[in-house]
Amino acid sequence: MGRLRLGVNIDHVATIRNARGGDHPDPVRAAEIVARVGGDGITAHLREDRRHIRDEDLRRIQEATDLPLNLEMAATEEMLAIALAHKPHAACIVPEKREERTTEGGLDAAGLHNQLAPICARLADAGIRVSLFIEASEKQLEAAMRLGAPVVEFHTGEYAHAWIDGDREKVARELKRVTDMAALAVKNGIEPHAGHGLTYENVQPIAAIPQIAELNIGHYLIGEAVFVGLENAVLRMRELMDAAR
């Protein structure tokens, strides 16, 4: 198995900053720390309501580090224009609702094909790697194939919730679902990633899936950073991921 990449989502550094206004703590500083300790990428979600990452953060992150930026974005004309202006390494299209606290579930790529197709095409034409944040299901994976997405990120929220609930049967079921769909993705030329709700305790079974190329982890690492520092939090996650491989 190849080395599993770790993308660190720095949204919630910006959440803390925005709680008081001003510029501290700076998500750009978090991106610099991630780069220094061997992270493989930075993920940032520019939401419609700008609840954490702000527009100007994107440019500053790109200027501060050579790590690839994975921009999470809703499938809207506003976000498409921003992505085309900043040209991140990758754009991961996610579902988005104003009232949600965090992204709830995967994108309905099958039901939204006609809305997604022109957005995916324009991103690809600009040299931006398109990713779709979807549930690990054949229906959604087939939709990603029809859309020509080179990458999918499987939503691991159900797996994470089952782990917290101690529901071993559901954990096993969800793990098998992600494992099977990762294999199917690779068979069809799509690179599978995974993320949402991953922690020190539950990351290794997902990390051990041989076809998964990248994990994107944010909220948990920023929470741990409050206690041990971001550098140590990222290094510990990296250690666990490597041990699983």
From TrEMBL:
1-deoxy-D-xylulose 5-phosphate binds at D11, H12, R47, H52, T102. Keywords: Cytoplasm, Pyridoxine biosynthesis, Transferase. Its EC number is 2.6.99.2. One of its GO terms (molecular function) is pyridoxine 5'-phosphate synthase activity. It is an enzyme of class 2 (transferase). The active site is at H45 (proton acceptor), E72 (proton acceptor), H196 (proton donor). HAMAP family: PdxJ. NCBIfam families: pdxJ (TIGR00559), PRK05265.1-2 (NF003624), PRK05265.1-3 (NF003625), PRK05265.1-5 (NF003627). Homooctamer; tetramer of dimers. PANTHER family: PYRIDOXINE 5'-PHOSPHATE SYNTHASE. Belongs to the PNP synthase family. This is Pyridoxine 5'-phosphate synthase. The gene is pdxJ.
